[in-house]
Amino acid sequence: MKELFGKLLKNKKVFISVTSALLVLIITVIAVSVGVSKTDKSEKGDNTPTESFSTTQTTTETTQTTTQLTIQTTTQSTTHNTTQNVTVPIEWEDLEYEYVDSSGYKFEISLSLSPWILLSNQNAINSAWAKVGNNNTLPGFNDWGLEKWETYNTYNRSGMIKALNGYSTSYFRKPMTDMYYCMASLKIKNVTEGWDIDTSNSRNVGFSLLWKADRMDIDCIGRIFYSNGEKDYLTGVNINADMVGNDWGPVSIVFMAPENMTPNNPNGDYYSDLLNLTHLETFALNAGIKKTIWNGEEVSYPTVPYVGIIGNDGKYVKSNRE
Questions:
Q1: Cα distances (angstroms) measured from residue 259 to each of 80, 222, 224, 266
Q2: Is 98 helix (H, G, I), strand (E, B) or coil?
Q3: I need a labelling partner for 12 at 20 to 30 A (CA). Which of 19, 23, 28, 290 fits?
Q4: Cα dihedral angle (257, 261, 267, 272), rounded to 10 degrees?
Q5: Which residues contact 315 (CB under 8 A, 6 or more apart)?
Q6: pLDDT, tens digit, 9 for 90 and up, residues 85-126
C-alpha cells in the first residue's frame, strides 16, 4: 500500500486524477444521502397529514352513511310493522240455517261473511282474514290461475267447474286493475237429538253458495279451503261436507270479484253494482231449510245477505238494499 501511495506521489498527474475522482464520488454519495433524507422527510411530512385527514374523512363518511342507513332501515321497518299491525273493524254478516235432510237429521249451519274488500286495502284484508282464515294462506292477485291478455288489463281463466250443478265448466274473463274479496267461515253441527254422527254413522251434507251478482255479468271465483286441499268454483262454491262427527268445520272461503279503475270510474266499474245487488243464494238448501237467522233475527227463506263494501277510499259503506 505504501509502495502504491509512493508511486502515486511520484506521478503527480495520476495522483491528482485519482484524488479528484474520489472527491467527486464522496460528494455524489453525500448529495444522494441528503436527497434521500429530504425525500423521506418530505414524503413523511406531506403524506402523513394527508393520509390522516383522508382516513378521518373516510371514517366520518362511513359513520354518517351507517347512521343514515340505520335510520332509514329502522324507519322502514317501523312503518312496515305498523302497517301490518293496524286492525280495521269489519262489519260481518252472520247467518244461521236450521236444515233437516231427507232422513230427518237436523243440522245448524253457521256462515259469517265479510264485506267486499278491495285487495289493495291490505289492512282491512288482513283484519278479516285473521278471523276466518284458520291459518290458511290467503291468495294474492296472481294466485287465482288467471292469464293476462295483451290489452286492456284483461284476465282470463277457463275450465272451471260452475258452482251448484257441479259438472259444467265455464270461464272467467274480466278487465281488472284490482279485485274484491269477500271472506267467509262456514261450519256445520249435527243437533239431531239422540242421533250422533260418528265414523260408523257418517253423513254427507251438500249445498251451494252462489253469487247472484253473476247474473249481472260480475263474474266471481270462489275458493274453499278443505283440510286436504283447496278447490275453486265459478260463481260461488259447492259445499261437500263428509261428516264423521257431530261437528264439521269451520272451513275458510274466499269469493273473488273483479274491479277495474279508470278515469271515468275512479271508484271502479263494479263498485255500485256490488253494493246494490243481492249477493248470495243457497239453492241446494231450499227444501230442507226450516229456519234462517240473519244477524240474530229470524227471517223467512230464501234469505240473501247484502254485504257492504270497503272500496278505493278505505271506508266501509253498508249496502242500501236491506
A1: 26, 16, 21, 10
A2: strand
A3: 28
A4: -40
A5: none
A6: 588 899 999 999 999 998 999 999 999 999 999 999 999 999
**Mean predicted lDDT score pLDDT of the chain:** 76
Handedness of CA 41, 42, 47, 49 (dihedral sign): positive
Place of cell 296472481: 142
Grid coordinates in use for 272?
Answer: 255500485
Query: b/e for 285-306, b at 16 or more Cβ within 10 A?
Result: beebbeebbbeeeeeeeebbbb
Asked if residue 68 lies in contact with residue 82, where contact means CB atoms within 8 angstroms, the answer is no
Name which of 313, 306, 287, 266 is nearest 102 in CA terms. Answer: 287
The residue type of 39 is T
Between strands 154-161 and 169-175, the pairing is antiparallel
Q: Residue 56: in which H helix or E strand, if any? A: helix 12-85
The three three-digit cell numbers of residue 237, written as one number: 262454491
Sign of CA dihedral 247, 225, 209, 129: positive
> Do 118 and 141 contact (CB within 8 A), yes or no?
no
**How far is residue 209's CA from residue 218's CA, in Å, rounded to a whole number?**
16
Q: What are phi and psi of 31, to 5 degrees?
A: -65, -45
The pTM of the whole model exceeds 0.85? no
For CA atoms 212, 214, 219, 224, the dihedral sign is: positive
Length, in residues, of the chain = 322
